[in-house]
Design brief:
The structure holds two protein chains of two kinds. By secondary structure, chain A is an alpha/beta fold. Chain A folds into two domains: 263 residues, Crotonobetainyl-coa:carnitine coa-transferase, domain 1 (Rossmann fold, 3-Layer(aba) Sandwich), CATH 3.40.50.10540; 92 residues, 2-Layer Sandwich (formyl-coa transferase, domain 3). Chain A contains 17 helices and twelve strands. Chain A is elongated. Chain A starts with 14 loop residues before the first strand and ends in a 14-residue tail after the last helix. The N terminus of chain A is likely disordered. Chain B is an alpha/beta fold. Chain B contains 17 helices and 13 strands. In chain B, strands 6-5-4-1-2-3-13 form a seven-stranded mixed beta sheet, with helices on both faces. Chain B has a three-stranded antiparallel beta sheet with strand order 7-8-9, with helices on one face. In chain B, strands 10-11 form a two-stranded antiparallel ribbon. The longest helix of chain B has 24 residues. Chain B is elongated. The chains are: A alpha/beta, B alpha/beta. Chains A and B meet through helix 1, helix 2, helix 6, helix 7 and strand 6 of A and helix 2, helix 5, helix 6, helix 7 and strand 6 of B.
């Protein structure tokens, strides 16, 4: 049995020059950095990543204190460099020469104006892997349209099928397309690394965020193709099974979901609710009957849930092996016993923002668990490491770049967004 | 053989339904050989889940199965029998990774867990995709996409504040888990190629969702508060508006305000004292919503999108699946692909989620149940025709001739 300990995280030795911004850009390189990649996040002094300005209380060097930024950019290095200036772009190309991967998610016209064509980067580094991640892709009539994560949901069919029964479409509460673009892109980058390992060749990966979301409704595409059916919002209900929904519990905004998918589970639920007589109720005699009488059924279930504490109900349902889930909010999650037992939240200390519990790496690898190995970079925090150690620039060259504001250790216009 | 990014990689896919199959579907599109193990006769449970061709339930006519299993080889094999588990171990010698989605502890019963497989193949990666992960008090609880969407926190943020929390269409929690399984498995394979040693990868749907609560998760952890779900009407610059012929959606941050003003064609808003800063716009949200409602109701989806494209406003029409097929953008990019399947005929499928310039992604139709049983077991488990016949007779495997 050969199981010599694998101590190197899988992506140690992979360097990423990261021009990604907002959530999707941050998420792809967060995943890579959690697995050991050296990510160098490049931000312009006049235009830092906008999530540095979200979810914070204003004041001072507020751009270093955003929990939103600091969570999704942990384990990365920070370089204050303006790639919109010719001098800054020249420095960036030197960084590309010593990097394995370049990540960008500028709007296509912005990216092209800045000169981020794969061919141009390949001249700097023939084996480079470049990821471009736009809302609608880098080709086609909508290539220059602006879009954040929700646009990839609105424009992918998902929103049209989501919402309360008989009501207008609803978006997912998060910018749904963003993290999912990040995950798919991380997989694509590692696929390209595997190919490069075999052949020595780099390549250009192009991910249109809307197309990535479309894969997650593929069965609805097939339904249209096969049956010309268009699905309408059906709330939390299921096509076949009932009860299947979200029910109010005692207390303020406390909810529980239930998904009953067998006769046996239904019988157990009747007992848990203290209403064994329901098993004989003709309205609920089998799945088809329960589906037909779903409004009455939901009223019966909610009559029970609304009198019980959510935790107590969940415990009873778990003991009876009935499929249920609490609607946990972000504060509930921090206290959740399961996540605690798994050590999901770990304390992170950031020199400008303090200490708080941060969700840990989500790909739990048995021999090379991901970890926090550095706090998110303050703006321009690692200029010296990148410019001197990696690129060999002299102090004089750096000073000259700083005078032209191509390089900076502080934002030049720390505007409140 | 086309040279794709995962050419030469072999995956043993023991997973079922949505999450694991989506992970391995993407690997197959990238050129991996994916060997899908299915129980004889019944096959993957998704074969019995709609939509079905002509709404006629049949295990070879599920659109869900057809979508999730493009490009794979189907081996009908009963892992619960010791002879079946032994065949899986023999196949695993040739594999880079195993993907599975059984309740924790199940693979141990069959001797197919990581430690056992690593004895014969030290470089193997085993990825487990489950609702709650391999450890912790919830690990054995039953779950579905709905209940995981709730337990992972995303549901608390979705829907109207005065109504029940809402989940989106379909199997979104499962798909999120699947995408992570895809990327994590490739990452572990890359590490194993460098070190010679594989490992077990434990991914929990609940954690995947809990790690992606946008700004709300970090805000709650850092400051102890968060913004309650706001639905379509809680904030002018986020959510869905009715327009002349349907709905449009918007999500704008403060730096997009000039683009929103340009979209609405109302330059006077720039100097309107109610709207000059983000804080003022929030304070006067009702007034802003009223202006926007009126403007959207005066325009069609196409008009809104065309103006949004010119003004760089982050706005999109809410498109139905039928409308996606008319999208000039998706047409230009030839996104939808047709595949010919022996039982489903020629149907449209979503194309790959990303493009790779040197190693394009490709798809072939999902396999009929057991179509590759004989081929895979002869090649990778060394079975002869007699051996195959014996195992088929004892119900360990199901061999099927290519049928139309």
């Amino acid at each position: 049995m050969s199981t010599s300990p694998q101590t190197r995280m899988p992506l140690v030795g992979v360097r990423v020059a990261d021009l990604g911004t907002v959530w999707a850009g941050a998420y792809v390189t967060k995943l890579l950095a959690d697995m050991g990649a050296e990510v160098i996040k490049v931000e312009a002094p006049s235009n830092f990543d906008l999530i540095r300005g979200l979810n914070i209380d204003a004041g001072g060097e507020y751009y270093d204190t955003s929990p939103y930024f600091n969570t999704y950019n942990r384990n990365k290095h920070g370089l204050g460099l303006d790639v919109g200036q010719p001098d800054g772009l020249a420095v960036f190309k030197r960084l590309v020469q010593v990097s394995d991967v370049v990540v960008e998610n500028f709007r296509t016209d912005v990216s092209e104006k800045l000169g981020f064509h794969y061919e141009a980067l390949r001249q700097a580094n023939p084996a480079v892997i470049m990821l471009s991640m736009q809302a609608y892709g880098r080709s086609g009539p909508h290539r220059n349209y602006a879009g954040y994560g929700p646009m990839s949901e609105y424009g992918a069919g998902l929103t049209s099928m989501s919402g309360y029964v008989g009501d207008e479409p609803q978006k997912v509460g998060i910018s749904y397309g963003d993290p999912l673009a990040g995950v798919a892109a991380a997989g694509a980058i590692v696929g390209a690394l595997l190919y490069r390992r075999r052949t020595g060749k780099g390549q250009h990966i192009e991910l249109a965020q809307r197309e990535n979301v479309l894969g997650l409704i593929g069965e609805a595409v097939l339904d249209w193709s096969m049956n010309r059916r268009l699905r309408k919002p059906q709330g939390n209900r299921h096509d076949v099974f009932a009860p299947h929904g979200c029910y109010r519990c005692a207390g303020d905004d406390q909810w529980l979901t239930l998904a009953v998918t067998s006769e046996d589970e239904w019988r157990r639920l009747c007992n848990v609710m203290g209403k064994p007589e329901l098993v004989k109720d003709q309205r609920f005699a089998d799945a088809a009957a329960r589906k037909r009488n779903e409004d009455a059924l939901d009223a019966v279930v909610e009559q029970w849930t609304s009198d019980v504490n959510r935790e107590d109900a969940f415990q009873l349902l778990a003991e009876a092996r009935i499929t249920a889930g609490k609607v946990l909010d972000p504060l509930d999650l921090l206290k959740d016993q399961h996540l605690k037992a798994r050590g999901f939240y770990q304390a992170m200390t950031h020199p400008a923002a303090g200490t708080w519990p941060m969700d840990g790496p989500v790909w739990r690898m048995s021999k090379t668990p991901g970890k926090f190995w550095r706090a998110a970079p303050r703006f321009g925090e690692n200029n010296d490491y990148v410019l001197k150690e990696l690129l060999g620039l002299t102090d004089g060259e750096i000073t000259a770049l700083e005078e032209r504001q191509a390089v900076a250790r502080k934002p030049t216009t720390p505007k409140q967004v | 053989m086309p040279n794709q990014s995962l050419t030469g990689i072999t995956i043993l896919d023991l997973s079922s339904f949505v999450a694991g199959p989506y992970a391995t579907k993407l690997m197959a599109m990238m050129g991996a050989r994916v060997i899908k193990i299915e129980p004889p006769t019944r096959g993957d449970v998704s074969r019995w889940t709609g939509p079905f061709l002509n709404d006629d339930p049949h295990p070879e006519r599920s659109g869900l199965f057809a979508h999730l299993n493009t490009g794979k080889q189907s081996v009908a094999l009963d892992m619960t029998k010791s002879a079946g588990a032994d065949l899986c171990r023999r196949i695993a010698r040739h594999c880079d990774a195993v993907v599975e989605s059984f309740p924790p502890g199940t693979l141990q019963q069959w001797g197919l867990h990581y430690d056992r497989l690593a004895e014969v193949n030290p470089a193997i990666v085993v990825t487990s995709l489950t609702p709650y992960g391999q450890t912790g008090p919830y690990r054995s609880l039953p779950a579905t996409s709905l209940t995981i969407f709730a337990m992972g926190g995303q549901m608390s943020m979705t829907g109207e504040p005065d109504r029940a929390p809402l989940r989106p269409y379909g199997y979104q929690a499962d798909y999120q888990l699947g995408l992570n399984g895809f990327a994590a498995t490739l990452t572990a394979i890359y590490g194993a190629q460098l070190s010679g040693t594989g490992q077990h990868v434990d991914i929990a749907g609940m954690e995947i969702l809990a790690a992606t609560l946008e700004g709300a998760g970090p805000r709650a952890a850092y400051a102890g508060d968060f913004m309650k779900r706001r639905g379509n009407h809680g904030m002018a610059l986020s959510g869905v508006y009715p327009c002349k012929d349907g709905y449009i959606g918007i999500l704008a941050v403060p730096r997009n305000w000039p683009a929103i003003v340009a979209l609405l064609g109302k330059p006077e808003l720039t100097t309107d004292p109610r709207f000059t800063t983000g804080a003022k716009r929030r304070a006067n949200d009702d007034a802003l919503q009223a202006i926007m409602y009126q403007w959207f109701m005066d325009h069609t989806k196409d008009q809104v999108f065309e103006i949004a494209g010119r003004t760089k406003a982050p706005v999109s029409p809410i498109l139905t699946v039928a409308e996606l097929f008319d999208s000039p953008q998706l047409k230009h990019r030839r996104f939808f692909r047709q595949l010919d399947h022996p039982a489903l005929g020629r149907q449209w499928y979503p194309g790959p989620p990303f493009g790779m310039s040197e190693t394009p992604l490709e798809a072939s139709p999902a396999p009929l149940l057991g179509l590759h049983t004989a081929e895979v077991l002869s090649e990778l488990a060394g079975l002869t025709e007699g051996g195959l016949a014996g195992l088929a007779a004892s119900g360990v495997i199901q061999v099927r001739e290519a049928v139309a």
